Amino acid sequence: METGDCADGPGGPDAPGMQFGCASFNQDSTSLALGTKTGYKLFSLTMVEMLDCIHESETPDVYIVERLFSSSLVVVVSTAMPQRMNVYHFKKGTEICNYSYPNSILAVKLNRHRLVVCLDESIYIHNIKDMKLLKTLLNTPSNPSGLCALSINHSNSYLAYPGSATIGEIVVYDANNLNTVTMIPAHDSPLAALAFNASATKLASASERGTVIRVFSIPEGLRLFEFRRGMKRYVNISSLSFSPDGQFLCASSNTETVHIFKLDPLGPSGEDETGTWTAYVGKMFSAASSYLPAPVSGMMSQDRAFATVHLVTSGQRNICTLAMIQKLPRLLVATADGQLFIYNVDPLDGGECMLAHKHRLFGTDDDQDEVAKTEGSEVPGPVQTCPSYAATAALPASGPVTATLTGYSEDGGAKKGEVIPEHEFAAGPVCLDDENEFPPINWCRGGTGGGQARPS
Fold first, then answer.
1. What pLDDT does residue 234 have?
2. Residue 251, number of CB atoms within 10 A of its CB
3. Which of 94, 29, 32 is nearest to 334 (CA)?
């Protein structure tokens, strides 16, 4: 599942003191993108013991980098030009196009049909096949963190974003048919995290309090599950992610604990199908809760974590995802100090997850010996070296050809009659024609002005 985080929260380009600007897993968690002050890196996540750096760019001060599945399309935004989104074919080292927006870009989400750009009070929806601007959602509630989620199932390209700046309302928007599907009153306090499952039939949410995580049916918006992360303190939920099969949901925060919740199916009568002692006790508590005050009843009826991970440190930003690596379920956690932890997950019994491997994403691990002593048999992964950008791809000598799109109506994109400036395209034909990969853009730009799309 796709999830990402920037140094000061989603989309924030200005936080000091962080070693990297952003980190994001791609839509099926087979790749990790890392943005730093000196460039960005793309890693392949197909092995536990080995972390393969497949690309490194020298684009400075990157605070948003998103890769489309395993294709060569990558979207980059830097603090040098926070209002401009650049779309690259990283294997060829060429720019496909770039778009500029009225304000700083806070988040970019993409699937095989749509590319969504989130600003503070507006959202732009592009058709990813030709990058045409299909719709602009204007005057959306203030969303300074750029919080939004786009389903990876392109047949149901649902977009979720905050419907209020003061309470936890979720707007679910159909990015294919360009209409609002439903409004979900999810939490009492403002939203902090959103995530769809792979089939776009469930949506998970957390509020700024971070104590309760709820799961809703899509498109109906009915509450299906409610999980309690904790009762002692409020926390900042930094990421939510479903497992590929949708049976588990992981949540990470600014604490040292990562929680994994299990979405147990209910039988025809609405009761748990499992006959375990835990299920029996849960039913007894549920029955008793009907006689208790509402706050106590709510705490008793909410499910706790199925599995947990305790990180070495707390208080730093991180992102998590659940993935199948080498045919086994794993929990991946990327932390703000530039480390990737891979844990084994027991899908039957849960409990504390065992650390399988740790990788250093950049820099050198000066305290390898100390970590090895404190973590027993765990052996830190080797420092990964990447070929330079110049060594992997030669940029075209000629500059990009500039084209301007004008006259969009309110239904077609920007404000009526407004010019979208600096819509630039790389010189020469550029297509994503990777073998065995979905070509996300099926047209090429000629090297002679105009900027008109030409079918392939």
1. 74
2. 25
3. 32
